[in-house]
Structure formats: structure tokens, C-alpha cells
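agent> fetching stored inputs for the glycinamide ribonucleotide docking request
agent> found them:
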Amino acid sequence: MSNLARVAVLVSGRGSNLQALLDAAADPWFPADVVQVVSNVPGAYALERAALAGVAASTVVSKGRAREDFEAELLGHLDGIDIICLAGFMRVLTGGFLDRFRHRVVNIHPALLPAFPGTHGIADALAHGTTVAGATCHLVDAGVDTGPILAQGGVAVQDGDTQESLAARVLAIEHRLYPMCLRWMAEGRVSVEGRRARVRLLPGETRWVGG
Ligand code: GAR
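agent> prediction call returned; pasting C-alpha cells
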């Protein structure tokens, strides 16, 4: 029997963060195994990435459905799952669902939270004129991008940056942050005190990734 943490990744789109997790998990020393991918959007490219990696993939349509109804079907795909990673999953999960996976649901967001939560993190940072942008990996609570922060990383905003150019540099940070945080989760090195996450870091590790 393997003692790797069993991970499900929830996706809605292209799945580059899913790919970063799949690539990390391909290392035999990585402490987690991605065993299930679920998309709420039919035909999402992330499903193809799962198939190419030989990981079980399914679609649970969310559009036009009550959240509880959607989540009841979703739960049917999450039997025996230890950790859920949201990777570009554009649905808010209910407190009832999260209670079943207390402190075991992780998200990646393309902004330095608590600044710029929601669906337009990059555009909002650009519009605000910040000189740094970045990404946050955090535990999920019932709010929108409000849960305890595991790690963050940043890049400088350049004059002339477009949404695309900035998003590409932030995405590179996301791809470094997410496997790192999943490792901490899978190794049981994360605890939560109030709204703060604590991580037992090994020598040389930090919770900030510079770009
Ligand atoms: C990523 O930038 C992720 O941070 C963002 O969607 C993108 C998905 O890309 N998520 C959010 O904005 C959630 N609020 P991917 O499908 O290539 O991983």
C-alpha cells in the first residue's frame, strides 16, 4: 500500500497549474499522488492533460445548477481523497462542502492576497498601478480567496506590461508555488491557528518566492 497523500484537482480551464502538480507528482519522491481530476466545464483542456498523464478524469457540470446539487455529485468523485487542489477552478465551494475537507482544500490565486481577490486578479493589479504583482497559495475557506495563506511569490510590474505579459510571469510563480505547498500539505507540515497558517519549514525553505 502506498502512503502517498491522495489528491484530487478541480479545474475549469486550460490546466497549467494541474500540469505543474502532475509533473511534480511524477517524481517518485514527491509525497502526493494526483489520482482524480474533476472539471466543472465540459471539454476543458485540463481534462486532456489528465488523460495524457493517465489520471482518472471526470466532468461534473455546474452551470445552471444549485451549488448543493453540484457539490453532492462532486462528492461522489472524491471518495478516499486526502487533499483537494483548486487549479483555475472558477466556482465558490459552500461551507458545508469545505467542512468535509477541513483545512485540506488548497487554492492558487494570481494576486498577492488579500489584494485583488476574485476572478480578475491580474487585471485588477494592473488597473490599480501596483509595482509588484504575484500569486498566493492558500487554504480555502467559505469566502472568496480569503483563507489562511501558505505561500506567496511576486514579480515586478514593468512599464508597458499588458495583462498577458504580466499573467505569464505570475503564472511561472504559480507553477513554483503550488507543488511546494502541496508537498507541505502532504507531509503534514501545515497547521492552522485562527486565520494564520503555520508551516514547519526545512532549512533553506521560505514561504516567499521571488521572480
Ligand atoms: C491561474 O492563473 C489561477 O491562478 C487562476 O486561474 C488561472 C488558471 O490557469 N485562478 C483564479 O483566478 C482563481 N480566483 P490554469 O488553468 O492554466 O491553471
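agent> quick read of the result: The pocket of glycinamide ribonucleotide is lined by residues 13-17, 87-88, 108-110, 119, 121, 145, 171, 174 (CB under 6 Å).
agent> awaiting further instructions
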